[in-house]
Amino acid sequence: MSARTLRAEGLSVETWCKPRHETRAGREPVPLVRAAGLDLVTGEVLALVGASGSGKSLACAALLGVLPPGTRSSGGRILLDGIEADPAALRGRAVATVLQAPRTAFNPLRTLADHAAETLAVAGIRGGAAGTAMREAFAAVGLGDDPRVPGLHPFQLSGGMLQRAMIALALMSGAPFLVADEPTTDLDLVAQKRILDLLAGLVRARGLGLLIVTHDLGVVARLADRMAVMEAGRIVEAGPVARVFAAPAAPSTRALLAAHRALHGEPA
Asked: Do 230 and 50 meet the contact criterion of CB atoms below 8 Å apart?
């Protein structure tokens, strides 16, 4: 797909709780994400930040149509180049994903080549063309030097290598947009730097539109063009990273920045 914009409007997610009064039937809805809006543009990085439990991952799950059991969408729509689209139809085609725990995303009984063949088949690429596409994608993420890599199983690779393999699968899909949910959380600092450098390079070289979910404002400052701040399921502030860092408007944004500066010994 050659789409240039992906827009989520009014994303809302709810769960349920028992009624306050035993005499009332049914369950009461509890909002978890409230009318959140996100705009992705190819060639740019949007960072979604906020405290733990603010709704970041749920908003991404709503964008992708993969909400966990016990929750449901209560509103919103997805627009691809201004045309409303079903999230299920976008997954793996217009939008690829990179998760924070790559080991849980791979079938431990199948090799990386098996995973690649499945991904490429969805994109309509098979046979010799699939082999070429797999090798090119592995090379693009720094896994092309060892010819044994495609034949390895997930348990034979480090966390950093698996994260690179997951990014390679995203590239194989040909999707113009990539959602990366805390992609470096489970990695050591050296691996974190390498993965962030890789993502930044792919955005520049391939013009991907990247949505990165993170609680690390250092990652935001280094990687993102724009940022959106969530609190209690709402987007409370959004704008260019330089502007938000210089003049945060929302109290939750100021609190995040103050905590980051205190943690890293920076002047308030």
From this structure: yes
Q: Which residue has the tokens 């199983």?
A: 153
68: DSSP letter: P
User: Which residues have CB under 8 Å from 74's CB, separation 6+?
Assistant: 12, 13, 14, 29, 31
Indicate the pTM of the whole model.
0.90
Alpha helices of the chain — where are they, by DSSP H? 56-64, 87-90, 112-122, 127-140, 159-173, 189-206, 217-223, 241-246, 251-263
Q: What is the pLDDT of residues 35-59, one digit of tens each?
A: 999 999 999 999 999 988 999 999 9
Determine the residue type at 63. L
Mind listing the pLDDT tens digit for each residue in 218-255? 899 999 999 999 999 999 999 999 999 999 999 999 99
Strand partners for 180 = 98, 212
Tokens 């919103």: give the residue: 76
| Cβ burial 204-236 (10 Å sphere, 16+ → b, else e) | eeeebbbbbbbbbbebbeebbebbbbbbebbbb
Distances (CA, A) of 121 to 66, 99, 130, 144: 21, 21, 8, 21
User: To 10 degrees, the CA torsion angle through 33, 37, 43, 44?
Assistant: -70
Beta carbons of 37 and 10 less than 8 angstroms apart: yes
